[in-house]
Structure formats: C-alpha cells, structure tokens
Design a protein that fits this description.
It is built from 24 helices and no strands. The relative contact order is 0.03. InterPro entries: Sel1-like (IPR006597), Sel1_AlgK (IPR050767), TPR-like_helical_dom_sf (IPR011990).
Length: 421
C-alpha cells in the first residue's frame, strides 16, 4: 500500500494523483506502516491530496514516532515548537529535537543547537550549541554550517577563530546558502579571516543581493556610491538602495531619502526625500529622526513645523544622536518649537560635548563662563575651550587666548595668549 501511494505521489508508472496517494498512505498507516504514518502526517500538514488538518498531522507524527519512525521525531518537535496541531511546548520540542539529533537527523541537530544557543526549552549552553552546530555541519546541514561560522567569528561556545569562520562561510556559500554570501562579502571587505579584497567583497555582495538579501543590496549600493571594489555609479547605487528599501532594509530607506534630497543617482525630489525619512523613522531608524526634524525645521518636502522639528530633534537626541543634541540645545536656547529654557539648553550642550561635538564644547564653555543655565565656573569654562580647540573648533582658539590674556579659569599667561591669537 505504501509503495502504491508513493507511485501515485511521484507519477511513476501511472498519472500523478495526490488524492489516490493520500488514500493509500492512509490505508497503509491504518495498517501499521510507520513510514506511511509519517507521510500521511505530511499530507495533512501541507494539504496534499486532502484538506489541511493540523491536529491530524500532529496525531500521525506522534503515531509514527511511537512506532519507531526516526524521521517523524523532528517533525513532532516542530509541532511542539510552533504549536502545530497541539499546544506549544518548548520543553517537549527540545526533547524530540534531541532524540532526533541523537538518531542522526542533521536538521534536528541544527535545531537542537539553536535551543541551546537561545535557551529554547532548555538552559542556555553555548558549548553544547557549538557542539551540535559542528555535528550538523559535518553531516551537511547548510544552516548549521553558517551558524558554525558565526560561532567561530564571535567566539560563541568556542575560542574565536576568524580563519575558521571564513572557512565555514566559504563552505556555506559553496553549498548555496544565500545568507552566507553576504557574510563572506563582509569577510573580504574587512579582512576577517582572510586578506582584504574589495573586488571579491563586491562580487559576493552582488551575488547575495541578486539572491534577495536585503542587507547585501544596501551594501552593494554603498559600493557603487563610494567606488568600493567597483567603479562609481550613482544610478546603480540608487537602484540598489531602492530595491533594499522596498525589501525593508532600514539603512537603505535612509540612504534612499538622502539620494532624493540631494539628487544622487536620481532627480532631486524633496517630497520623496521627506516620505522616505518618515518611513525610516517609522521603522525605528534613530539616524532618520534627525533628518526628519531638519525637514520640518526648514520645510524640506513638507510644510515648516517648528513644534514637530523640536519633537523629532528631542527623540533623536534621546536616542544618542549627537547632532540632534546640539540642535535641541539651540531650540531650547532660542525658544524654537518649545519654551526657552536655559537649564535644558545647558544640559543638552553638556550631553553633546561629552559625546565629542566640538561646537557644543564651545557653547558649554561659554555657559560656564557667564553662568547661564548653571553656576559660573571659570575653570570648567577654560577646560571646555581647551577641549573644543583640541577637537578642531577654530573659534575656541580666540576664547582660549582671552582666557590666558585675562586669567579666566587659568593663570594669566601673555605668551600663551599671543600664541593662540
């Protein structure tokens, strides 16, 4: 019966007929054929030759497992893992992944490793995760090969070994793993486990992009934009930014907005720039918040709205955007889109200065010098003028000279004053 069902399924010696195949799998399963039980479960799960019935799929996976069908163990694990035809139970999913893995199922080995890696139905154990990724990789599971490479790259469950990471990324790519192509490109791009080679990096970014990897699409666009391993081509850069953005890559959405704003590889279109800045922000791209604020502030692709500009500068600043911190401080200082507030002005100048913004350092020094938004502190004023100059702020040289000339926050020193003038 099982053999007859298989013939109907494959169309060997007769016309392919999934309904007949289902009928004979069912007959064979009901007569105790454990292989047919497994196949019948698959038919119920995938609605082949019959209506989809996940509860019956689970039932027959369970029956097949109870009757010693090793292939059904991994399927039963999937049912418990994803709540297919039964209640979700990660502990039982782990149990059956383990049983299947111990019986040589390479897919179950990879799933078992994932369980150990992310604490799914079992306590986290990175050494065991590595062990099972390695076993599955040796058996040829392509996802495990990629996961094994990631373990070597990040030192997860094993000592970091970039050469081994590169080796396994290559192996995964040779086996047709599209996700590995982008990782291999990164290795060539940054010299990870191999010599840096921008032409090979471009090649693998391109291969991955052509196979639908949205992150690789964005990287490919960058290559075309800044001539990285390939001749500069802004039209192709725009094309791949657009493709990656359509696939939902958040960095590409921001890059696409920039292209529209300045007319890079496409005709300038401020309305489209604003649209994509909004999209990037909605998708949680913190860098886009500052750009969106600038659009509202200057009326780029939308009506000028200082309150919304302030709102997005604040959001960006709270998400550690240093440029936005400076803008937010200035908004509080002049009362643009919000009430004037010297204490908050001082606070955000201080935050931006601590994060390395040399303009904020100059302003912060001045606030300490005149005691605005904070107590007057000439030593701190001198300190921040020095920091601003050290970080490339040319205006700070003049203020530093004044400090030495008049002894502001430091000892009076006319030679140093002359030097900085």
């Amino acid at each position: 019966m099982h053999h007859l069902a298989t013939l109907y399924y494959s169309g060997k010696g007769t016309e392919k007929n999934l309904e007949e195949a289902f009928y004979w799998y069912q007959k064979a399963a009901e007569n105790g054929d454990k292989g047919a039980m497994h196949d019948l479960a698959i038919y119920y799960e995938n609605s082949e030759g019959t209506e989809k019935n996940l509860k019956k799929a689970f039932y027959w996976y369970q029956k097949a497992t109870e009757n010693g069908n090793d292939n059904a163990m991994h399927c039963l694990a999937r049912c418990y893992e994803n709540g297919i035809g039964t209640e979700k139970n990660l502990e039982k999913a782990f149990y059956w992944h383990q049983k299947a893995a111990e019986n040589g199922d390479k897919d179950a080995m990879n799933c078992l490793a994932v369980c150990y890696e992310i604490s799914k139905g079992i306590a986290k154990n990175l050494k065991k995760a590595f062990y099972w990724y390695q076993k599955a990789a040796e058996y040829g599971n392509n996802n495990a090969i990629l996961n094994l490479a990631n373990c070597y790259k990040s030192g997860k469950g094993i000592e970091q070994n970039l050469e081994m990471a590169f080796y396994w990324y290559q192996r995964a790519t040779e086996n047709g793993n599209n996700n590995a192509m982008h990782c291999l490109a990164r290795c060539y791009e940054n010299g990870i486990g191999t010599e840096k080679n921008l032409e090979k990096a471009f090649y693998w970014h391109q291969k991955a992009a052509e196979n639908g990897d949205k992150d690789a699409m964005n990287c490919l666009a960058v290559c075309y934009e800044i001539s990285k391993g390939i001749a500069k081509n802004l039209k192709k850069a725009f094309y791949w930014y657009q493709k990656a953005a359509e696939y939902g890559n958040n960095n590409a959405i921001l890059n696409l907005a920039n292209c529209y704003e300045i007319g890079k590889g496409i005709e300038k279109n401020l309305e489209m720039a604003f649209y994509w800045y909004q999209r990037a922000t909605e998708n949680g791209n913190n860098n886009a918040m500052h750009y969106l604020a600038e659009c509202y502030k200057d009326g780029i692709g939308t009506k000028k709205n200082l309150e919304k500009a302030f709102y997005w500068h604040q959001k960006a600043a709270e998400n550690e955007d240093i440029s936005a911190m400076l803008c937010l401080a200035k908004s509080y200082y002049i009362g643009e889109g919000t009430e004037r507030n010297m204490e908050k002005t001082f606070y955000w100048f201080h935050k931006a200065a601590e994060n390395g913004n040399n303009n904020a350092m100059e302003h912060l020094a001045t606030f300490y010098k005149i005691g605005e938004g904070t107590e007057k502190n000439l030593e701190k004023a001198f300190y921040w003028y020095q920091k601003a100059e050290e970080n490339g702020n040319d205006n700070a040289m003049h203020y530093l000279a004044e400090c030495y000339k008049d002894g502001i926050g430091t000892e009076k020193n006319l030679e140093k004053a002359f030097y900085w003038y």
